[in-house]
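Supplementary Note 2. Why include the ligand at all?

Several targets in our set were suspected to adopt different conformations when bound, so apo predictions alone were not considered sufficient. For every target with a known small-molecule partner we therefore ran a joint prediction. The input for zinc ion is given below.
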Amino acid sequence: MFNDVIQLLFPNLCLNCNKGLVKTERYLCLHCQLNLPETQYHLLKENGVEKALWGRVPFERAFAFLYFNQAGITQRLLHELKYRGNEELAFFLGSLYGQRLKKISDTMLLHGVIAIPLHPSKLRKRGYNQSLAFANGLAETLSIPNFSINIERIKATETQTKKNRWQRWENVNAIFNVNHPETLCNKHLLLVDDVITTGATIESCAKELLKKTSCKLSIASIAYAA
Ligand SMILES: [Zn+2]
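The joint prediction is reproduced in token form.
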């Protein structure tokens, strides 16, 4: 709350430590940017995200940019994305992660990104889709197209937090629809979400994509809550 007021009054302060930013810094001071809790999972096979998704849906690779820790930088950034509608920050984080993924994107032969969509009613309420803005930053930095227009959410889902694993699965079953699936055939796509917790949403969306097209999928998120 105090942070929110400070940020409104002084937008050129670091989102994490409130220190004044110099011209070359955006959103975070250099110190905080260097101290982001990066997972480096893209460099690590059999990482936490991959293990969480094993046996549930076929994928090539899966990774997340940041660890989600309750009181840390990641939570402050996600709060800014979710409650203050900071679309540019989501794009900026996508660009940062894109720079990291450049190291492996050539060997992965990615053909494009595709973001998990929000239901139109939620999009109206939220103002923008943070996964899509993050995916836009990734796509631009990696110089690959964004195919997010090809997937839509046709069912609004209730909040996941008070449901058990089965109820969560039921809650996210058959909620996506693929448009013009032929466009995605034989492509290796990076499916992008904001936060991976149980992975139920990713699983449901990936299954729908794999059912409708002959694409291959890798998975990326802004944060991973183990
Ligand atoms: Zn800082």
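The chain has two domains: 1-35, 37-224. The first helix runs from residue 2 to 9. Comparable summaries for the other entries are listed in the accompanying table.
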